[in-house]
Specification:
The chain is built from eight helices and five strands; from the N terminus they run H-E-E-H-E-H-H-E-E-H-H-H-H. With 177 residues, the chain is mainly α. The protein has two domains: 124 residues, Orthogonal Bundle (Arc Repressor Mutant, subunit A), CATH 1.10.10.10; 39 residues, no CATH class. The two termini are 26 Å apart.
Length: 177
């Protein structure tokens, strides 16, 4: 199975990338406007400098999303220009604080903020799985992808319930190993 095919199929519904493996699954971590909300929500927890914000986003995604300085700092500058955050220099670093206006912006769409961090939790789960397995088991990925495709085809022919039962039995057996 090629990487392109995995991308087109949305391999296991994973909405991102496996760093270092070249797999891309057709969607960015942050949709339009979400980086702003993510930064605001992290700053609502307390003042942070840019590197702390990038590190926290990476940790919340299990290491699978790595925010770049090229996306975080321009967004912080924009938020500062809009009066959503204020920055002050502490120990040679710019530390950002949420303003009252930033808090209001954050409260306008709490569902969007919830969705961002739920997505991060899904990434974290995948990240823990990927880190735990190591490169010695990566050769299983094409087999797993083939199983996923065969399962979807069979579900189209015989219905999802029978296929789900078979997959659950297989999962149970593998977990017992």
């Amino acid at each position: 199975m090629s990487k392109q095919t995995w991308s087109e199929s949305g391999f296991f519904g994973f909405p991102g990338a496996f760093p270092g493996m070249g797999f891309r699954f057709g969607r960015r971590f942050f949709e339009s406007g979400e980086m702003r909300l993510a930064l605001l929500s992290l700053l609502a927890e307390g003042p942070k400098h840019g590197y702390q914000l990038m590190k926290e986003m990476q940790e919340r995604s299990g290491g699978l999303y790595r925010a770049s300085a090229g996306s975080v700092y321009p967004t912080l500058q924009q938020l500062e220009d809009e009066g959503m955050v204020e920055a002050e220099t502490q120990s040679g670093r710019r530390v950002y604080h949420l303003t009252e206006e930033g808090q209001k912006e954050l409260e306008r769409d709490p569902e969007a903020v919830r969705r961002i961090w739920e997505r991060a939790e899904r990434y974290e789960d995948w990240g823990q799985t990927m880190h735990a397995m190591g490169p010695d088991v990566w050769p299983l990925l094409p087999t797993i992808g083939t199983l996923a495709k065969a399962s979807m085809r069979a579900a189209g022919r015989v219905g999802t319930e029978r296929v789900r039962e078979i997959l659950e039995r297989a999962r149970s057996e593998v977990e017992k190993l």
